[in-house]
Amino acid sequence: MNELPFSPACERNKGPIADVLKQLLPARARVLEVGAGTGQHAVHFTECMPGLNWLATDVPANLAGLAARFAREAAGRLAEPQPLDVAHGPWPAGPFEAVYTANTLHIMPFSLAPALFAGAGEVLVDDGCLVCYGPFMDDGVHSAASNRQFDLSLRDRDPTMGIRDTRDLERLAEAAGLRLDADIELPANNRILVFRRTEPTTSDRVSSQAS
């Protein structure tokens, strides 16, 4: 049997994240995951929240591993994972009650972060939310020495990587019609930032003007 892609970190954090999502999401919700990685989160969350209609996306290179996990562990419960290039799209057709992404913002170049927020803002329902999990800093200050060391190691590996500042993310969110609605501490100095849609999307504005 071929080995599935596996992340020890995902295995550790899937329970605490699920506990938060149970409070954030309606019992029945359509959720778009950006950067689904190994698929462990998608499998676990749809096991413990069966009302979720979860669509996992990632870059094409990761789709085979995702599809293999879903076929083995979530047959009939998860749709075929879809390719998504955050910068260039196309994004899956919404609307979604939530867009979820974990441990992506510190990996992707920060130049792609505006596209993540803009894309999420376009596919979310009114009052829908973008849920971002990972380590973050505030006004240039890390919440723990371990996060500072992790940040340095990321930047040594690739200067475009690094732990992002919540203040910068709030500005990107505002430009995309989103606002920071919650900042939730989780184990291992990680957090969940919840950005809620507060303004009409571009397509909504065009439709309104046309009518």
Written description of the protein model:
This protein is of the alpha/beta class and 211 residues long. It has a single domain (8-210), classed as 3-Layer(aba) Sandwich (Rossmann fold). The chain is 38% helix and 27% strand. The protein is built from 7 helices and 10 strands. The protein has a 7-stranded mixed β-sheet, with helices on both faces. It has a 3-stranded mixed β-sheet with strand order 7-6-8. A hairpin with a 3-residue loop joins strand 9 (178-186) and strand 10 (190-197). Helix 4 crosses helix 6 (166-175). The longest helix has 17 residues, at 8-24. It starts with 7 loop residues before the first helix and ends with a helix. 35% of the residues are buried. The model is unreliable at 202-211 (pLDDT under 50).
- Helical content stands at 25-40%
Class in CATH? Alpha Beta
Helix/strand-derived category reads alpha/beta
Spans of 5+ residues with little confidence (pLDDT < 50)? 202-211
Q: Major β-sheet, in short?
A: 7 strands, mixed
Number of helical regions: 7
Strand content: 25-35%
Q: What name goes with the CATH superfamily? A: Vaccinia Virus protein VP39
Radius of gyration: 17 Å
Q: What distance separates the N and C termini?
A: 57 Å
Question: Topology, pairings included?
Answer:
Elements lengths: L7 H17 L4 E6 L5 H9 L3 E7 L4 H11 L8 E2 L12 E7 L10 H11 E11 L1 E3 L2 E2 L2 H13 L6 E2 H10 L2 E9 L3 E8 L4 H9 L1
Parallel strand pairs: 1-2, 1-4, 2-3, 4-5, 6-8
Antiparallel strand pairs: 5-10, 6-7, 9-10
Helix pairs in contact: 1-2, 4-6
